[in-house]
Design a protein that fits this description.
Blueprint lengths: L12 E2 L6 E2 L4 E4 L4 E3 L3 E2 L3 E4 L3 E9 L5 E9 L2 H4 L1
Parallel strand pairs: 4-8
Antiparallel strand pairs: 1-3, 2-7, 3-6, 5-6, 7-8
């Protein structure tokens, strides 16, 4: 196929697991609308970390009755990181 567009990109995925420690600016999700930005996370299509910490997931119900999964970061202090 011309231009290599025949296959979908494979980099669209969840990049982290729950409980993993991440650094500031690390990409958490790329190209998925399944996960939404929670605490200390920013972005729409590509979610990234705003501070270093530990990943955890939470689910909330919207006003329309849909359940959304949010990615959050629990900040890690300097003393607990060492």
């Amino acid at each position: 196929m011309t231009g290599g567009k025949a296959r979908p990109k494979k980099d669209k995925a969840l990049k982290v697991c729950g409980g993993k420690l991440v650094k500031t600016g690390e990409i958490l999700v790329r190209g998925l609308n399944t996960y939404k930005a929670g605490q200390n996370v920013k972005g729409k299509d590509t979610l990234f970390a705003l501070c270093p910490g530990e990943i955890y997931f939470s689910k909330k119900k919207t006003s329309h009755g849909k359940v959304r999964t949010f990615i959050n970061i629990a900040p890690v202090t300097e003393k607990s990181a060492k």
